[in-house]
Specification:
The complex is a heterodimer of chains A (97) and B (383).
Chain A (H helix, E strand, L loop, with lengths): L1 E2 L3 H13 L5 E4 L10 E4 L5 H10 L6 E8 L2 E10 L14
Antiparallel strand pairs in A: 1-3, 1-4, 2-3, 4-5
Chain B lengths: L1 E2 L11 H13 L10 H21 L7 E4 L2 H12 L5 E5 L4 H10 L5 E5 L9 H6 L5 E7 L11 H10 L3 E5 L11 H4 L3 E5 L11 E5 L37 H17 L1 H20 L4 E3 L12 E5 L4 H12 L1 E2 L1 E3 L4 H7 L6 E4 L7 H20 L1
Parallel strand pairs in B: 1-11, 3-4, 3-5, 5-6, 6-7
Antiparallel strand pairs in B: 2-8, 7-8, 9-10, 10-13, 12-13
Classes of the chains: A alpha+beta (97), B alpha/beta (383).
Chain lengths: 97, 383
């Protein structure tokens, strides 16, 4: 599951992944997972590497990637895989004048 | 009715805009960033779509650097009030709208100064005069892309180059040009671009926005809920949330997207060719009437489809009323919210009668309008 710093990126991530014919859907996110935008992109683990590459190319900012287990509809975090700092997936921006 | 007031708001809208407004209001049963139900997500997807369409239209690489506002005036206020600090100096042209002049005038109380670079009577701006006005404290050049009074297209590429050379921010007001003339923020060196949704972009009123190249340099004017980082009392820095507190007008923004898509599908060149032909026809016909004074550049290539006139022997207001009463021609008369531009054109005392065709007008409508003006002039001659 991927989380994002804003809804804009969550929606863009969904569009990017689905546009490439991959399965991925946005779901409301448990508060304990992240408070950033309330949405997470759910991906099957086997396509996550491909999906991440696509998102990187599309300039989507990520917050973190976590592995979760769904147990009778409840989401349980089993592994926090990676936490991204702003700019990890993008080139540093020039500063304004 | 012959609608010649597209500079105020475009009418009619493309059919797809009406349909999208209807469908959105009925079916986008949610608020963007507020909830993960289908309606909220669909509303979010529609807003994302419009943001991406606008980014493509303006050559903006990162769509999230476009923030939605309620109109171009709000966007210009965000740019000016959000950027400028006491001691800063701004350069504007003598053709600016009150949406720029009034905020700057108010900012004078907070120690912001501005210089007005004079234009020729037809609105022409000399870019070198802009460069000469640069001071050590100059932070921003702010320029309308085209005058809403004389229709004059301003030299944004030349001025943008000057701004780039002097490391200044460059704010362009595209109220009269977005959806009419191609704009590329990279080529023109634009760091802030204000647009409205309800004119050339053919969307509904209540939509507009600001492109912000350097979000770190702009303070928000409105703080509040963004549906993100909700445990924090501080405003998020992430774009576009930083500048989009409160519930966004998703149905109208979706309809604006339909307008931009219409422009994309029709082709900006085709739209421009058509409105330029109508402008040329109108200019040509008006110039043949000795009692009519036409303001602005003579060549239709140098203007957007905005034509200001005065008719000898009758005020602009009365002429507008006569055209409406006798031929149901919709125009606008008066000062057009731009006293600075009227001062430049020499029409501050009289105002002007403004005729502004749009993409949906026809040559036959222009011919009827010219015949109506000729008839009005005839009535005045006989009086």
């Amino acid at each position: 599951m991927l989380t994002f710093p804003s809804t804009h990126y969550a929606l863009k991530a969904e569009k990017t992944v689905q546009g490439a014919g991959l399965q991925g859907r946005l779901i409301p996110m448990p508060r304990e997972l992240s408070s950033l935008c309330g949405l997470a992109l759910e991906l099957e683990p086997e396509i996550s590497v491909h999906a991440l590459a696509l998102l990187q190319a599309a300039g989507v900012r990520l917050e973190k990637k976590v592995k979760v287990l769904k147990d009778r509809g409840r989401i349980r975090v089993i592994e926090a895989i990676e936490k991204y700092e702003a700019g990890d997936l993008r080139e540093g921006e020039e500063s304004g004048s | 009715m012959i609608y010649l007031n597209n500079a105020a708001t475009s009418w009619p809208k493309p059919e797809a805009v009406y349909q999208m407004a209807d469908v959105s209001l009925r079916q986008l049963s949610g608020s963007v960033n507020r909830g993960g139900n289908k309606g909220a997500l669909d509303a979010g997807r529609a807003v994302l779509e419009t943001r991406e369409l606008l980014a493509a239209l303006f050559g903006i690489r990162e769509p999230e650097q476009i923030v939605f506002t309620v109109n171009a005036t709000a966007a210009l206020n965000l740019a000016l009030q959000g950027l400028l600090e006491p001691g800063d100096h701004v350069i504007i042209s003598g053709m600016e709208h009150n949406a720029v002049v009034r905020p700057l005038y108010a900012l004078k109380n907070r120690g912001v100064e501005f210089t007005v670079v004079n234009c020729a009577a037809d609105g022409t701006l000399d870019p070198l005069a802009v460069e000469k006005a640069i001071q050590s404290r100059t932070r921003l050049i702010c320029l309308t892309h085209a005058s809403n009074v004389t229709g004059t297209i301003m030299p944004i590429f030349e001025v943008g180059e000057i701004a780039r050379r002097h490391h200044l921010q460059f704010l362009v007001d595209t109220a009269q040009t977005a959806g009419e003339i191609p704009i590329d923020v990279e080529t023109a060196g634009i760091t802030l671009l204000a647009f409205t949704g309800h004119k050339g972009l053919m969307g509904p009123p209540g939509t507009g926005g600001l492109y912000i190249r350097y979000p770190d340099t702009i303070r928000p004017l409105i703080y509040g809920g963004t549906g993100s980082n909700s445990e924090l009392f501080t405003q998020p820095e992430i774009m576009p949330d930083k500048f989009e507190s409160g519930t966004i007008n998703a149905p109208a923004i979706a309809a604006l997207g339909a307008g931009v898509r219409f422009i994309q599908e029709t082709g900006l060149e085709k739209i421009r060719r058509h409105t330029r032909e109508l402008t040329g026809q109108l200019l040509e016909g008006l110039r043949q009437i000795p009692e009519v004074t036409v303001y602005g550049p003579a060549e239709p290539e140098r203007r957007v489809p905005v034509i200001s006139i005065n008719i000898r022997g009758i005020s602009a207001g009365e002429a507008g009323a006569w055209l409406a009463d006798h031929y149901e021609i919709a125009t606008r008369s008066g000062l057009h919210c731009a006293p600075l531009a009227h001062q430049t054109a020499g029409t501050l005392a009289t105002g002007t009668l403004r005729l502004s065709p749009g993409y949906f007008n026809t040559p036959a409508e222009i011919e009827t309008t010219l015949a109506a003006v000729r008839e009005l002039v005839g009535v005045l001659r006989d009086a």
